[in-house]
Design goal:
The structure is a single chain. With about 210 residues, the protein is an all-alpha fold. It has one domain (about 30-205): Up-down Bundle (Four Helix Bundle (Hemerythrin (Met), subunit A)). Helices cover about 70% and strands about 0% of the residues. The protein has six helices and no strands. α3 packs antiparallel against α4. The radius of gyration is 24 Å and the shape is elongated.
């Protein structure tokens, strides 16, 4: 029958072509991946804040020695480690710029170098634990020291895991000028890890 035919492009035709649920409504201008990472970082800042609150309670309210008497922190070694981690932020930026400009060599070299610098930082920190001469159970100062630096070390490990996946994908040619979220999102996290270490180093080792 004539009445049964529907012109192409009509409402019924559009309805027939659509399968599955409607697209999710985004109220934010940020993409979901970036918004999720930012919210995660905010929660991590609050977690670190709880440890810093305990640290300042011991030093300011409790007026305890820092570090405890008879103990010494390797400030110079930690300073070198800080320089290594700060350098990794620049190589991470190099990788991201390579992705944005379609420079695969810069992308791969930047990610791989960042990963190696992160591994170096973590190795030095583990060696520091082995040779520092006190344990978390020895006193409150030791508990806070291992708690804050260990918490940060765990975040470095997570960042290295993300960088490993990103590096593997980069060498397989998965990223392009238009699609490189797999580099940007780990990059945001890595910069957060670097900034947080500067705060930890300044507070724990320098002050």
């Amino acid at each position: 029958m004539e009445s049964a035919s529907i012109a192409p492009g009509g409402h019924a035709a559009e309805h027939a072509e659509h399968h599955g649920p409607p697209a999710a409504n985004q109220s934010s201008r940020l993409e979901s991946q970036f918004l999720g990472m930012l919210l995660f970082i905010i929660s991590e800042v609050m977690l670190f804040g709880a440890f810093f609150a305990a640290y300042f309670f011991i030093r300011v309210v409790g007026e305890a020695d820092w570090p405890a008497k008879g103990e010494e922190l390797p400030v110079a070694v930690a300073g070198v480690n800080t320089a290594i981690l700060i350098s990794s932020s620049f190589t991470m930026h190099w990788a991201l710029e390579g992705a944005r400009n379609g420079n695969r060599r810069a992308l791969r070299a930047g990610l791989f170098t960042t990963m190696m610098l992160g591994l170096t930082f973590l190795s030095i920190q583990i060696n520091e634990y082995v040779n520092i001469g006190f344990a978390p159970a020895d006193n409150a100062q030791g508990s806070i020291f291992y708690g804050l630096t260990g918490l940060h070390g765990a975040h470095v490990f997570v960042g290295l895991t993300l960088l490993t996946f990103a590096t593997i994908r980069a060498f397989r040619g998965h990223f392009s000028i238009k699609e490189h979220r797999g580099v940007e999102v780990p990059g945001i996290y890595w910069h957060f890890v670097d900034v947080m270490w500067i705060v930890v180093y300044t507070t724990i080792y320098v002050l």
